[in-house]
Amino acid sequence: MGLTSCPKCGETISEKATVCPHCNSDVSKNNIVMCEDCKKEYDISMDDCPNCGCPNSAAKPKKKKHKGVIISIVVFALIVIGVLGIGILQKLKEPDYYSNMEKVSFAMLDGAAKAENAGNLIKSVWYNAIYEKRNSETDQYTMKKGKFVDDFNDALSELFADENFTNSIFEIETNQSQVIDLMKQLKNPPKKYEEAYSVLMAYYDNYLKMTKIVINPTGSLNTFSEDFDTYDNDTVDSYEKMKLYLD
Description:
Layout: E1 3-5, E2 12-14, E3 32-34, E4 41-43, H1 67-131, H2 139-142, E5 143-144, E6 147-148, H3 152-161, H4 163-185, H5 194-215, H6 221-243
């Protein structure tokens, strides 16, 4: 039995050994390479000959991490962070969102009440001018020098020229602008309030119809009265549904 040197630690070992008894390295022929220059045997995993430094041409090239994998990991991490960040922001946003939702609900109720009073007065003036009905509230618009006006449009013009009524219309318009601004802030609701927002939008739509018809009445007495009454009832119904989402 011949002797040789361990290609890893250099200690003397048997030629038939498969594991070095000194350093426990695998010394089987499959893991041994002979140096091209000095002809010394050494472990195939080494980058170069430990005796003369000649590069090991049989060494397996080290695998490099694929850049695409690293990029994918980074992108995934950013997405996770982004999703978590959005969730946290949405949670922080909820109290302010609810406060604005409550504020706009009551603002629309206030504007609708003003529009209801103005709309009912418009109907009364319109009706009394056509059918020549006396009424202490409408006579100042429907009558001139003790006689009814010839055209109901004259009565309506007198109404809209009245300072008190003009102030009422201005308050409705101001309320409308405030509501529109608040509704813009309520776009993209947190998940918790998505259902409430859909109910609020229906309430908002009816509120706009009611306030607009009062600010700018058109059509005949019948169409105006029917539309106004419909919008009035729909606005009240919408508010009642919205109340279920308010504390």
